[in-house]
Amino acid sequence: MTPFGLKLKSLRKKKKLSLTELSSNLKISTAYLSMIENGKRGRPTDGMVELICAHLGLIWDDVEELKYLAKVSATNIKINTIKLGPNATLLTNVLNNNIRWLKEDQLFEISKYIIEKAKQNKN
Known about the structure:
mainly alpha
């Protein structure tokens, strides 16, 4: 499951909509919506995210959160480190070789740490 799929499923259930109802309203197949919710499809397009937000009647904060979650929900990532230093290559390889062994809470903490450091360096 992806962060986007988890949030979408939660919002859909909160609005008391079935997969069939939401997919019909979005004019997509139930199977496709199910695959998005369960992380079997890559991240949705910006247009699809906008359509989902509009249909669910989300407020601004929820729209921004769902857009962000869509951006961080790609399931088949390839990272090119050619123009970066050796530590960038090391990090990507360490993650690639070890991510399956990390627990969910550990992955969350590592992600928070990287995001925090990146924000500090941007400023």
